[in-house]
Amino acid sequence: MESALVSVAFLAVGALGGGLVWRWACAQGGPVPPVSPHLVRLGCGLAWAGLALAYGASLETIELCLLSLVLVTLSLTDLASLTIPNVCIVAAVLIRVAYIAMAGALGLVDPLSLLASSLLGAFCTFVPLLLATLLMDHLLGTESLGGGDLKLLSVAGMYVGWLVVPMLALACLLGLVGSLAKARGHLDALAPFAFGPAIACSLWITLMVARPLAAGFVRWMF
């Protein structure tokens, strides 16, 4: 009963946050995001409720809920203008650093160890993807992965570590489906499309299943 009430509360607050995110995206002066504001509110509310169910009422839940608002924000701007704002990337990093500092101060985690693993996850994601992107750009003669997408994937590595590998595969699948749906039969493999929403969605899904996967791995090992 308590977990249900917590989820309902997070659903309501998340919906309010979704409204603020929509207003911010529309206030940037670019094209209006091609998504209904009601859908944005519902999506943010459900995202918050899902995280509350998966992680409970905890500091980590608040961290990931704030991250989800950032992911929705950058998805809206990417859909509207094929741009992922640097302010969203910085916000995601600051949310992670703030969580590490607060959780460390409360004795919930070892802050230095978690900070080191987060930075390592970001580095081990950024460098191989950068090299692969440069190679693909050379072979294709055009941009294969935007700078914003690369930075967002590095942020994902900061949050989920090695799980970024299956997350990237899921993002590619979602991106392919989205690009085909947008093309509607007019195939153009080199046409630019918004990859940020696919990365954001796959990151959220990964966060939702990360704890069950980790718990299952521990049970299997011990």
Structure notes:
The protein has one domain (2-221). It has 8 helices and no strands. It has helices at residues 2-26, 37-55, 59-81, 86-105, 111-140, 147-160, 164-183, 196-221.
- Averaged pLDDT: 84
The secondary structure category is mainly alpha
Tally of helical runs: 8
Unreliable stretches (pLDDT < 50, length at least 5) are none
Number of strands: 0
Strand content: under 5%
Q: Which shape, going by the Cα principal axes?
A: globular
N→C terminal distance: 32 Å
Radius of gyration: 18 Å
Which terms would index this structure?
0% strand, 222 residues, globular, mainly alpha
Could you provide a short overview of the structure?
The chain has 222 residues and is mainly α. Helices cover 80% and strands 0% of the residues.
What is the topological layout?
Blueprint lengths: L1 H25 L10 H19 L3 H23 L4 H20 L5 H30 L6 H14 L3 H20 L12 H26 L1
